[in-house]
Write a structure and sequence with these properties.
The protein is of the alpha/beta class. It has helices at 67-74, 83-92, 110-119, 132-144, 181-187, 201-214; strands at residues 10-14, 20-24, 30-33, 36-39, 50-53, 59-63, 100-104, 124-128, 151-154, 167-172, 188-198, 217-223, 249-255. The protein has two domains: 10-63, Vcp-like ATPase, Chain A, domain 2 (Roll); 68-255, Vaccinia Virus protein VP39 (Rossmann fold), CATH 3.40.50.
Amino acid sequence: MANLIDDGSLVFIFLDAKRNWIRRAKAGEAFHSNKGIIEYDDLIGRPFGIKVLSHQGKEFQIHKPSQTDIQIAMGRNTQIIYPKDAGTIVIEAQINAGSRVVESGTGSGALTGILSRAVGKNGHVYTYEIREDMYRGAKKNLEKYDLVENVAMYNQDILEGIRESDVDAVVLDLATPWELVDEAHRVLKPSSYIASYSPTIEQIMKTCKALGESGHWGMIKTLEVLQREIMVREGKTRPPTWMVGHTGYMTFARNMAED
């Protein structure tokens, strides 16, 4: 059966790589742009993946928003963890359906949303954000994209202590992740992962040193993922002139059981 657009569905309205929008299709309302108007009534009841013409005759694609679409939309006003890094964190830290994950800081909520989808309805994400403005912004983002059902949000400094225990992963995007090494060990299940995202070499050096000296962690490793888009055009296929180079380093380690 076709995946249909319902009244209230989120839709990804695509004109080109630079002009695209996520909107909620509501009966009786319309999408407005300088390339014309699209009536949501003309979308509701039809399948995702259709092409439609605005009232100016401009062709748009209508898709279901992907995780990447939502993540980028959340982060347009703040720095986010890029999709290439978020995917690596989910896979390397063994975060899957039913997992219970602690995250800090919440930031824009972009990674929180990725984690929410990864753990599914039987899992849970517990996210900590010390800044009240970021906490409120992330809460608004997650509610906007229907990603709050399995998320608990705390406007709290995680350095004050993690409320949860027996969790499957701890994911950190903090200035001083090395200060959470012992606390993460306390709340994680044995053989589960800590994942720490940092933009600088100095941060990962301190984090790896703390992990190694604590005696509670095994299989410590740090990764950097590089991604380059290729512009495919007949007779002139090449990488773009500008690209995202470095985004961040990801450090992973597995929690050791107590003797």
